[in-house]
Each structure stands twice: as structure tokens, then as C-alpha cells.
Amino acid sequence: FLNMSTTSFSNNSQELAAHSSPGAPAIFDTSNKQQLVDKIDLCSFSPNVDELSCTEDNLTCPVMLVVPEKGVFVKTGPESNICQLFDETALIQLIIDGATHPVSRAPLSLDMIINKNECYFDTTKGNFIIP
């Protein structure tokens, strides 16, 4: 399903254009997709249970259902303060496919992709949140 490397999409508008859905909403046009992929590249990191003060279950990607080698925090919606960790490659594939957030069904946008330092694990809520 996701056999494409992240670097094949980074800074490569032609590749994104080739994968664009003709009927996709304007939010998923090639330049928006490229901006999303660029922000993912900037915000991706190697998740570590000890560093993030959570269990391995809390690091499971909702798409791949495994702890990603390279992950990125994504808010569940534009107005949400709750984040989930996604596998970087799975998230890029969702963007290329013009898909919405797999949990909330909100359109994926730049403000939903969050830097690692902006989220922390709230043990009382059992979620990553933006304070």
C-alpha cells in the first residue's frame, strides 16, 4: 500500500501532479499538497517512548497501526488541541490521494501538522495535546 519513500515526494511537484485526483477539492491542488508535504518534512521525527513520556500504544499510527520509524503529529481537526502521531509515509500518501483525516474526516491542512515540540502527552487525558 505505502511502498513509496518519503524522499520521492519531497520537493517534487511533478510527482504530486501525477498523483493528483482530477475531481479533488481545491484544498488538495498540487501546490497545497506540496506545502503539506514540505511541512511534514519539517515536522517529522523518530518517536521515542521515553522522550515523549507515554506508552508504545500511544505512539501507534491510526493508519498503519504500528509505531512509525518516522512520525509526525497531526491535530484531529483545525480547531482541536488533540494530536495523533502518524507514520510520515502514510500521511504523505493520504495527502497525495486527496484524503481527509482518517479519524475526524476533516480536510488535512497546514495548521493541522504540528511540530514535535508543540505537543506533549497528557497522562490524565491519555492523549497528545497542544497546551
TrEMBL record:
Pfam families named among the record's database cross-references: T3SS_NleG (PF06416)
Start and end residues of each stretch annotated as Disordered: 1-21
- What spans are recorded as compositionally biased (Polar residues)? 1-15
From the UniProt annotation, give the residues forming the signal peptide.
none
The biological processes this protein is annotated with in GO are: biological process involved in symbiotic interaction
Q: Name one GO molecular function term.
A: ubiquitin-protein transferase activity
What InterPro entries does its record include? Effector_NleG, Effector_NleG_sf
Q: What is this protein called?
A: DUF1076 domain-containing protein
